[in-house]
Amino acid sequence: MGPQHPSTHGVLRLILTIDGEKVRSVVPDIGYLHSSLEKIAEQLDYRQYLPYADRYDYLNAMGNELCYVRAVETLLGIEPTPRCQWIRVMMAEMNRIASHLVYYGALAIDTGATTVLLYCFREREMLLNLFEAAAGQRLMYHYFRVGGLRNDLPPDFCEGLRAFCKVFPRMVAEYDKLLTKNRIFRSRTESVGYLSPETALAYGVTGPCLRGAGVPYDVRRADPYYVYPELEFDVPTYTESDSMARHLVRQEEMLQSVRILEQCLDHLPGGEVNVKVPRRLKPDPGEVYARVESPRGELGCYLVSDGSDHPYRLHMRTPSYYNLQAYPEMCTDAWIADLVAILGSVDIMLGDVDR
Questions:
Q1: Each residue of 249-283: pLDDT tens digit?
Q2: Contact, 112 vs 184, CB < 8 A?
Q3: Residue 28, Cα to own-chain centre: how many angstroms?
Q4: pLDDT of residue 96
Q5: What is the DSSP letter of 149?
Q6: Which residues are CB-contacts of 207 (< 8 A; sequence separation ≥ 6)?
Q7: Domains: count for the chain
Q8: pLDDT over 90 (residue 355)
Q9: Are 176 and 251 in contact (CB under 8 A)?
Q10: 3 in any annotated domain
């Protein structure tokens, strides 16, 4: 199945062993993107690599940038300004919602419903307009900088975000009624794609796939960063361990992100968004691992410095790579028609897998 297939969510090839309509085994065959993104880092200085960080998980470009700049700033011993930290959290949560909206609409199409995608992209457009106002781009932002941001928020940004936060919960209720409570969708996802918590932990699965198996692990709580300790939000978990549980986690996460955004808007401090950094970034020799909670799970950046102005080694711990490893476990003895629904519930990004 694949790699040219509309429901593999990228250039993913699945080697199937089937018995009639039953799936006996699945082997994901990856490596079709040939991006070499990690190796490229060794040829560029720390600032030049920032635009490449957007391109791992291109639906979570802000989160990718956040992870990378946190690693570089930790190596350099730089602490962002309070206003910068609040804005970075806002951007990460906005990107979480935008990513989950693509997941939501894509899973709807994977299971036979088309209208939901149009609804989700209607609200996603509001977020993309805000990203464009702040960063000048709608998908690959290059907005974060080592030591701060490219620029402060435009004057009407906060008003636009408040308007989104006001209307979005009502839209999620609409999605829930349209898709989640649809009996066809429920039959396609309930008790389908079972992944036990023990198996999920053994494979290194994180994010909604892990929380859908009843394990309440979220980097924002397990290893808090920036202003997350000051924010009130829940970590949604479900114990059913099936495709529906993973779906419900993401649906609830969007509402929790709205809670976070409203608190950020209420407490956003004034001041500068950048600190002074050297013209040439040359951290002392050493290594660091920085992690954030992406829409797909734990996203980590491992950086090694040899004292020069470019990384000696960079490795991204991307959640899609680990989550995809557990996919065959979810598909054993499933029907062929279930493969697409299960893969959609895992919500992988192939740019996150092939690095």
A1: 999 999 999 999 999 999 999 999 999 999 999 99
A2: yes
A3: 21
A4: 98
A5: E
A6: 293, 294, 295, 296, 297, 298, 319, 323
A7: 1
A8: no
A9: yes
A10: no
DSSP per-residue string spanning 215-274: ----HHHHS--TTGGG--------SS-SHHHHHHHHHHHHHHHHHHHHHHHHH---S-S-
**Is 1 a member of any domain?**
no
In a domain, 4, yes or no: no
Phi and psi, residue 305, nearest 5°: -110, 135
**213 burial level (CB within 10 Å; 0-12, 13-18, 19+):** buried
- CA count, 13 A, side-chain hemisphere, 308: 11
CA-based end-to-end distance of the chain:
22
In a domain, 179, yes or no: yes
User: What is the SS3 assignment for 109?
Assistant: helix
Domain around 200 = 13-353
Q: What is the DSSP letter of 292?
A: E
Give yes or no for a contact between 188 and 341, defined as CB atoms under 8 angstroms apart. yes
Mean pLDDT score of the chain:
95
CB-based contacts of 167: which residues, under 8 Å, 6+ apart?
A: 123
What letter represents residue 314's amino acid? L
Tell me the C-alpha distance between 268 and 261, whole Å.
10
Q: What are the tokens at 270? A: 């004034």
pLDDT at 34: 83
Q: Which pair of tokens denotes residue 294?
A: 């992406």
CA 316, CA 298: separation in Å to the nearest integer? 10
Per the rule left: phi > 0, alpha: psi between -120 and 50, beta: everything else, 18 is beta
Q: Calculate mean pLDDT across residues 163-188.
A: 96
CATH value at residue 73: 1.10.645.10
* DSSP sequence for 12-72: -EEEEEEETTEEEEEEEE---S---HHHHGGGS-TTTTHHHHTTSSTT-HHHHHHHHHHHH
Q: Which of 295, 204, 197, 205 is nearest to 238 (CA)?
A: 197
For 202-251, what is each residue's pLDDT tens digit? 999 999 999 999 999 999 999 999 999 999 999 999 999 999 999 999 99
Q: What's the burial of 32, exposed, middle or buried (CB within 10 Å: 0-12/13-18/19+)?
A: middle
- Give the Å distances, CA to CA, from 316 to 53, 247, 290, 321, 351: 10, 26, 10, 10, 12
Considering the entire predicted model, what is its pTM?
0.96
